[in-house]
Design goal:
about 80 residues; mainly alpha; 3 helices; about 55% helix; flat
Length: about 80
């Protein structure tokens, strides 16, 4: 895969290290939980007009800092150099 994104250039980001497989039931459960969290935070933000400037700036700056950390930090848990069977 050819990309200029530094997060996607690392081969370690695509290797799996777990022995468990993904099930349909687990996927549906996690999707439902994330959808409920998303709906709850959207409803809170929609009904609270005073959230405008301050918290928006905190979220934007926090997301920017986290993206810089994800791009430039060294790997904490490098993937093993074993080929998949």
């Amino acid at each position: 895969m050819v990309t200029s994104n530094p997060l996607l250039k690392r081969e370690e980001s695509f290797t799996g290290t777990t022995d468990t497989t993904m099930s349909l039931n687990g996927t549906v459960n996690k999707t439902g939980i994330l959808l409920l969290i998303c709906m709850a935070t959207a409803a809170y933000g929609w009904n609270t007009p005073g959230l405008g400037g301050g918290l928006l700036l905190v979220g934007v700056l926090g997301g920017f800092v986290l993206s810089l950390v994800a791009i430039f930090k060294r790997l904490i848990w490098p993937a093993p150099k074993q080929p998949f069977a």
